[in-house]
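Bench notes, afternoon.
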Amino acid sequence: RVIATDGRQQTQPAEAVLSYFGNSVGKWENKDSLVVDSIGYNERFWLTNGGLPHTDGLRLMERFTRTDFNTLKYDVTINDDRTYTRPWTAGFTLSWIPDQEIQEYFCEENAEATFVR
């Protein structure tokens, strides 16, 4: 996923080239939050592991905030007026664990993986 942070404006929804990753434009707010506006998603990607529905009219407003040295907070507002009656929000918090790296995950390599809840 590429997030433009060079000050450009988000494209108009009618001009967006639809893709799995959408068209993302980010800007910094208050030195500790990256706010990302994304449009242009195709209808083939899954919004969550459970496959929440959406259309190509989906717009995500994401906020990545480092609340302290060890914590990253993620908040997202999902807006797709052709699928949902109103925008809705979700989020989670990640904690840094010393001496560990973030694991990469590629769907193609893990297509046979099973998930236990």
